[in-house]
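Justification of resources, computational component.

The compute hours requested in this renewal are based largely on the per-chain cost of generating structure records like the one below. Each record pairs the submitted sequence with a full structure-token output. That output is archived, and it is also reused by downstream analysis tasks.
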Amino acid sequence: MATSIQRSVSAMRVACNAARSWTRRGAVSSTANTHVANKRAQQPRMARSAQHQVAVFSPPPSLDGRAWPALGAHVQHGEGSSAQAPAPSPWARVLIVSRKHLRKGKFVDFVGEYHIDLVQRFGAVPVLIPRTETTTQQLEAYLEGGVDGILVMEGQDIGDEYKPYGEEGEVSAELKMEIQQKHAGDVELDSAKDCIEWALVRDKVLGEGVPYLGLCRGSQMLNVAMGGTLYFDVVAETGTTVKHIDYDNYDGHRHPISVLPNTPLSEWFHEEFSGRENESIELSVNSYHHQGIKKLAPGLEPLCHSLDGLLEGYYDPNFLDPENGRYRVGLQWHPERMMDDYTGCKRVYQDFLKAATMHRRKVQQQEKRGSSRAVVHSFPHIRT
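The structure output for this chain reads:
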């Protein structure tokens, strides 16, 4: 296991060093403070209707059926042995890289509590990774406990060095300046976050088959990593009249999407399909993006589109089986912010975290049989 971790860490460091040498932005030295706001300590939680309550999972059972020891307890190895070792954790570990934000003149790192809440409520442990340059030298500390799921969500645009617009997708300086004035917060790049998330996607998701949920930027990143491309700016390149971001009504803005029948998304939102199982139906979803998927990567299949034809969600049909620890989904919208809109929103997370839990059980079973490493899946379309 240690050898596998060391190889992954070494590969990630190489990728990060290469990314830093490619980036066109000057390095900015700053102190980033990790900060996750806990609003629950400051104000009462809003009451939710019974149909939207989310069950809190107990720890999954151990492989031999015994109860897990209490926190800090140790397991005896061998009859009469005095040696002690910590018991393996039953909790799936879901890695989430933080996002940089300028607050009161200094940078802070944060992860939205919506995501943390849902990961914990569905029985996993969120492992928050700071998006700093130094983290690239400390990844081993975050990987040693295992990686059972990776959640990548909102953030800045992906850097040019990852070819998000294709080999021939050079964006003119004039267009970049125009879009920067409209979407300054998104166009400002974050090379450290790019580097860490790209390495995790390439090595853990595509290299080892770790379950993945990509939301907004996260859906774009996986698509690019698997060979797809993006629009640098949807409005500028397509002329669409559909509003995909509304700064005057940021959280309240919605636009319709068409959900394809007989897909995982139609199953998660099956109430909306009642009596129309073989037809497309519309959902009204939030929207916070100026970029979007232009070419869908090989091997991925669409889940939904906005009414202007822009892809709003996809999945990997060869890698979606939560009961067997497999999950690979990208959504351009944010179900975590729509829990009171549709019951199906929680199922997106529920199946992701079920897959993460089953992934952990499979790894523990392999370790129990004496295997030192998990099965590595081969994907010929992975970009290097």
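The two ends are 24 Å apart (CA to CA). Confidence is low (pLDDT under 50) at residues 19-57, 62-82, 377-384.
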